[in-house]
Amino acid sequence: MANLIEYQKVRKVYNSGPDEVVALEEVSFNVGSGEFITVVGRSGCGKTTLLKLTAGLLAATAGSVHVAGAAVRGPLTNVGIVFQSPVLLPWRKTIDNVLLQIEARKLEVEDYRKKALELLELTGLRGFEDKYPNELSGGMQQRVSISRALIHDPPLLLMDEPFGALDAITRDEMNLELLRIWSEAKKTVLFITHSIPEAVFLGDRVIVMTPRPGKIAEMIQIDLPRPRTTAHRDDPKFISYVKSIRQRLGVL
Ligand SMILES: Nc1ncnc2c1ncn2[C@@H]1O[C@H](COP(=O)(O)OP(=O)(O)O)[C@@H](O)[C@H]1O
Ligand SMILES: [Mg+2]
User: Fold this and answer.
1) Whole-model pTM?
2) Does residue 15's CB lie within 6 angstroms of at least one atom of ligand 1?
3) Whole-angstrom Cα distance, residue 45 to residue 39?
4) How far apart are CA 101 and CA 107, in angstroms?
5) What is the 51 CA–ligand 2 centroid distance (Å)?
6) 59-84, pLDDT tens digit by residue?
7) What own/partner pairs with CB < 8 Å and gap ≥ 24 does 73-80 have?
8) For residue 226, what are the CA distances in angstroms to 12, 39, 230?
């Protein structure tokens, strides 16, 4: 499996000077093409920083990030990003929120309408294309946001705690949905979360991060078969992965 992302000794310092914050230190790992990687850690351990460095929204203080073989030096156009909040425009229908990405890229909207409808089918929103955000549940709004991130067909999907604002039941459902979308759309996913069970349930590998400075404490290969199902949450292996990450993070 070729690597899609390569992090080499990445360091990120905010506010150099007396109040400097070392957000990331010595971060080195690779993400294989098609892999589903989850990054888990407490709030403030540098997860969002890592995602922004990958997307080229921030520059590393030292070290390098390569995506598809090229050093990241500015905002990447061939990635899809999903944030914790779905950031939909309230006056736009579902389909038009998905197509926003196409407008922003100054591409021909009509060329993408069919693709947008296919994505709404893929994300389980068929029949909701003409609804406005306030007519959709939180989970559905996040599905719109995922559709929007996929409309330009990027090979890489970056997700920053996308289900953090959802209730626990919807979150578990969205985990299953995301895995289905991932297996059908064949993307590489870098998924950031502060939920240990979510990281284990989704990932091929889990990157465990500890704060101040944000470092990789452990990388764990998740040896659970795919497709993952709710039953895997009761699997002794699943439980032991969760337990060992909790211990690593010092969760009381
Ligand atoms: N723009 C910024 N300026 C100064 N410090 C920042 C900035 N962004 C993040 N930080 C600090 O860097 C550390 C990592 O932040 P972040 O990457 O957002 O962590 P996480 O997403 O894991 O909660 C935190 O201590 C945070 O306060
Ligand atoms: Mg964050």
Assistant:
1) 0.95
2) yes
3) 10
4) 9
5) 9
6) 999 999 999 999 999 999 999 999 99
7) 77/105, 77/152, 78/152, 78/154, 78/155, 78/156, 79/54, 79/55, 79/154, 79/156, 79/157, 79/158, 80/148, 80/149, 80/150, 80/152, 80/154, 80/156, 80/157, 80/158, 80/187
8) 35, 19, 11
